[in-house]
Amino acid sequence: MKVFVVEDSAPVRERLATMLGEIASVEIVGEASSAPEAIDGIARTRPDAVIVDLMLAHGNGIDVLHAIAREGLGIKTIVLTNYPSDEFFRKCMEAGADYFLDKTIDFDRVKGVLENLAKSFLPQA
User: Fold this and answer.
1) CA-CA distances (angstroms) from residue 18 to 13, 56, 79, 109?
2) What number is the average pLDDT over the span 63-73?
3) 51: which strand partners?
4) What are phi and psi of 31, to 5 degrees?
5) Could you count the other beta carbons within 10 Å of the beta carbon of residue 70?
6) Side by side, which strands form the sheet with 2-6?
7) What is the pLDDT of residue 73?
8) Torsions phi, psi of 48, nearest 5?
9) Whole-model pTM?
10) CA-to-CA distance for 125 and 47, rounded, in angstroms?
């Protein structure tokens, strides 16, 4: 399963890369720290899933979610944010997010979510 990471913090990107590297069926196909860079990278790499932060260097994660939804490619989206308010949750869900996780308490849940998603990309016997 191909995953694209949208996160403006290099240490968080590195932590995600380490964690996702533990999942045999997951490959990180790109990273971005801004919305424009993410939208371009996602269009080029056509990932199966995107992990997206809300607050980015330029633009925001909701812009990225809207761009993904417009393409209609069935990309699974995981919002991973330090801003887990009800308002952001609602806006993200309206923009097409599949998951909404709090970096503070849910960071490690990303691995389980991707492991479950990856099962749907394995060849059926």
Assistant:
1) 9, 21, 18, 14
2) 93
3) 5, 78
4) -140, 150
5) 10
6) 27-32, 2-6, 49-52, 76-81, 99-102
7) 83
8) -85, -30
9) 0.94
10) 23
Please state which of the ranges 21-35, 50-64, 108-122 shows the lowest mean pLDDT: 108-122
Q: Do 123 and 31 contact (CB within 8 A), yes or no?
A: no
Secondary structure of the chain as H, E, C letters: CEEEEECCCHHHHHHHHHHHCCCCCCEEEEEECCHHHHHHHHHHHCCCEEEECCECCCCEHHHHHHHHHHHCCCCEEEEEECCCCHHHHHHHHHCCCCEEEEHHHHCCHHHHHHHHHHHCCCCCC
- Nearest to residue 67, comparing CAs of 88, 37, 87, 90? 37
Q: Which amino acid is at 49?
A: A
Amino acid at 73: L
Q: Which residue has the tokens 């609602």?
A: 90
List phi, psi (to 5°) of 13. -60, -45
Q: Tell me: the pLDDT tens digits for 9-54?
A: 999 999 999 999 999 899 999 999 999 999 999 999 999 999 999 9
